[in-house]
Write a structure and sequence with these properties.
heterodimer; A: 521 residues; mainly alpha; three-stranded mixed β-sheet; two-stranded antiparallel sheet; 19 helices; 7 strands; globular; B: 243 residues; 12 helices
Chain lengths: 521, 243
């Protein structure tokens, strides 16, 4: 009888090998990845004490897997978080259909999924830290994708460096925890003294892993340079794994959740992230920078929820992980289309794009991401508001304002996408003509001659003018206009709206995730 | 294999002082010089020194994992760096070669001097840290080695902008962490997994080195084939970037 832990790790590993071998056939590669994630989700959805019969083998969900003398096991508390991570990965893979994100995306993404699953299942935590480092090394390949050239490795290196700096902190925490194991738990002062360094090391380690500290260390470069769906993958699977692992620490160690230092650091970290992201988001000049601010708001939100330690807050974390995969995935598909169309997602370069499907993806995904009522993201934000309102009303206001700031940034971009360049150029022409006419009262100015501002001569009807050059706006001939690409966006938009109206479809998953933790009782 | 382990065991008895001198010398040179043809062999020497230091506190057979993993990583990195260099040479972007041909005597020594001073500061800080903040559970020699490697690693990560050099800093940082942690948790599984981490991080850095040199998708062939394709450009020696 096979232990389920083996399948949770082996299925993505095998699928990664297959996906790499079949990477020339993008649809088949994605189908394999989605199938592998679906199989693991099916296994984990069964009751923990059950034995699942698959063709040719029996799988015992509760049986441990012995690896290098350590037991890997799908514990009750890890079952739903693992299921959520695999479901998120499946959603992200599905949304990237007809949107190639570089060859490493699918195979290396599956390897990373196996690494983060091991991190959640293995004990003691020292091995989890090592598994997360392995996941970060794999993530660096995904972030780099197929980009070449000097300075192109900034985002990958930042991510790898941050995760590597977190490794000694988590290893150190494990040592301190082991050494202080014999302390009298009834003596609060002795506990605080013995576990004090561990609290600092754990919080600092997770802050680095989640991208909360230092500010903009990897979030900004990754959002700007990495293929957009890779950013989604890291912000859902990567951030989700770190969040659930921190929840496991929270569950395991009384001294951590009772520590005022830890709670204060989480509250402060969350508030600082929301403040910075809120201050910066509305004024950004590209979709990827707004996206980075949005991700920081999400991280801040998770930190604030962690600090409350209630059942509702755990539900909110679980729900937001799943909601983020769909909302952020849709937003990133829109950003990917813009990059394909214009080679950039900077507002200055996307003027007059007028691609309705891109706008729909960015609009629906982005506004759901920040929690617009009527979308899936709103349910997630509502749950957060419910969880956090009792703890700190100011923090809640900060959260809402930060979300609004990200929304303003996105709306500015959307408006620019539909602003008419020709009308803009004509207005400039008219102003220049007026100024020239007025000047001509004093001096002779040749309005239509050499003094007039040059305009691109080869500009054809339907072309946009970007930094003085005529750029064709038409998307005809690009695979972006294919039916399948539009189908993916249509389904994504429909899901965001339907699940926004009927969140009860996925809410039981979040409730099941929260039910496994007992620290708030 | 057993003879190799035996040899490793005998070498580890050599005394910590010589190993620490080797660590200090290799780390300083790697932090100062930015030429992979020099730094990668130095890294291998450093991995051997780290392995020998570890062999003083854990089984020599387990400690041997470190130099083996390190050598594999350095081999992979050298291939990546070579391909990146060939690609740069094909594009005529040999910055280092132009430096050698037209050395800017006002600029180059300043960079070198700055790195040398920073390296000296790190070494001094490592000595100070060993006395003021002794690490738990390990001998003082291992503490000094760990502080040196972590300090030089952070220095490289903070000052180098190329993936290869910053990556070497990360690998040094990992070696330092191993020197601290393995004596605290002397289990085979931890040693094996830390060796695996070195390999994985090495693979990632090799990939990023290729990307840095613009050689990810280029049809780059090493050596002779390249010369046949473009004899004029590749007849120049590929650029030794000394500083």
């Amino acid at each position: 009888m096979l232990p389920a832990a083996l399948l949770v790790i082996a299925v993505p590993l095998l699928a990664a090998g297959l996906a790499y071998a079949l990477r020339r056939w993008g649809s088949l590669e994605l189908l394999i990845a989605i199938g592998a994630c679906g199989l693991v989700v099916y296994l984990l959805a069964r009751p923990i004490e059950s034995v699942v019969a698959l063709p040719g083998l029996q799988v015992d969900l509760d049986a441990p897997l012995d690896l290098l003398g350590r037991a890997l096991r799908v514990r009750a508390a890890d079952r739903v978080p693992l299921l959520l991570l695999f479901a998120c990965a499946a959603i992200v893979f599905a949304l990237s259909w007809r949107a190639p994100q570089g060859w490493p995306f699918v195979p290396v993404g599956l390897l990373m999924l196996a690494a983060v699953s091991s991190a959640l299942m293995i004990r003691p935590f020292v091995f989890a830290a090592l598994a997360l480092e392995a996941a970060a090394a794999l993530a660096a390949l995904m972030i780099q994708g197929e980009r070449n050239g000097e300075r192109s490795t900034l985002a990958s290196m930042r991510y790898l460096i941050t995760a590597t700096l977190a490794l000694p902190l988590l290893l150190g925490a494990d040592y301190v925890i082991g050494r202080a194991g014999g302390v009298n738990v009834a003596d609060a002062e002795a506990v605080a003294t013995a576990f004090g360094p561990a609290v600092i090391l754990v919080i600092a380690g997770f802050a680095l892993l989640m991208g909360a500290m230092p500010l903009f260390m990897w979030v900004h470069p990754v959002a700007k340079d990495a293929p957009p769906m890779v950013t989604t993958f890291l912000a859902t699977v990567g951030l989700g794994a770190s969040s659930f692992l921190l929840l496991t620490y929270w569950q395991e160690y009384d001294w951590l959740r009772d520590s005022e230092t830890a709670l204060g650091a989480l509250r402060m970290g969350g508030a600082v992230l929301l403040l910075f992201a809120g201050l910066l988001a509305w004024a950004q000049r590209s979709f990827s920078r707004v996206l980075a601010c949005g991700i920081l708001v999400e991280i801040g939100c998770v930190l604030l929820l962690m600090s409350t330690g209630t059942q509702v807050s755990v539900e909110a974390i679980a729900f937001s992980t799943l909601a983020r995969a769909l909302s952020l995935g849709l937003l990133c598909i829109g950003i990917w289309r813009l990059r394909e169309l214009r080679g950039s997602d900077a507002f200055a370069d996307v003027r007059n794009t007028r691609d309705i499907w891109t706008a729909m993806a960015i609009g629906t995904g982005g506004l759901s991401f920040i929690g617009l009522p009527g979308t899936l993201g709103f349910v997630s934000r509502w749950a957060t508001a419910r969880a956090y309102s009792g703890a700190d009303a100011e923090g809640l206001v900060l959260l809402l304002l930060a979300g609004a700031s990200v929304a303003i940034g996105l709306l500015r971009g959307l408006i620019i996408m539909f602003s008419d360049v020709h009308a803009h150029v004509a207005a400039i022409d008219k102003t220049a003509e007026d100024v020239a006419t007025q000047l001509s009262l004093f001096d002779e100015v040749d309005v239509d001659g050499e003094d007039a501002a040059p305009l691109p001569e080869e500009r054809a009807a339907g072309d946009a003018v970007i930094e003085g050059e005529a750029v064709p706006v038409s998307t005809a001939g690009l695979h972006l206009s294919s039916v399948r690409s539009r189908f993916v966006i249509g389904v994504g938009v429909a899901l965001v709206l339907i699940l926004g109206v009927w969140p009860a479809i996925i809410a039981p998953l979040a409730q099941a995730a929260a039910a496994q933790y007992s620290f708030y009782r | 294999m057993s003879q190799l382990i035996e040899l490793f065991d005998q070498l580890s008895q050599a005394g910590a002082a010589s190993l620490l001198i080797a660590l200090a010398a290799t780390s300083s040179l790697i932090a100062i010089i930015r030429n992979w043809r020099i730094t990668l062999p130095l890294m291998i020497i450093q991995y051997v020194a780290v392995g020998l230091l570890l062999a003083q506190v854990i089984e020599p057979g387990v400690a041997l994992i470190k130099p083996l993993a390190g050598a594999i990583v350095c081999f992979a990195l050298s291939i990546a760096a070579q391909r990146a260099d060939v690609q740069r040479a094909e594009r005529g972007e040999s910055v280092a070669l132009s430096r050698l041909q037209r050395p800017n005597l006002q600029r180059t020594p300043a960079q070198l001097l700055l790195r040398a001073i920073a390296a000296m500061l790190v070494l001094t800080a490592a000595f100070g840290a060993v006395i003021r903040f002794p690490l738990p559970g390990s001998a003082r020699e291992l503490d000094l080695g760990a502080y040196m490697l972590i300090g030089y690693g952070v220095l490289l990560v903070a000052t180098a902008f190329e993936a290869l050099n910053a990556g070497l800093g990360l690998l040094m940082l990992l070696s330092g962490v191993e020197l601290v942690f393995i004596p605290l948790e002397p289990s085979i599984s931890v040693s094996v997994l830390l060796g695996l981490m070195t390999l994985l991080v090495g693979v990632a850095i090799s990939y990023l080195t290729l990307a840095d040199g613009g050689a990810l998708h280029a049809n780059v062939e090493l050596g002779i084939e390249n010369e046949e394709l473009n004899p004029q450009q590749s007849s120049q020696p590929s650029s030794p970037q000394l500083f």
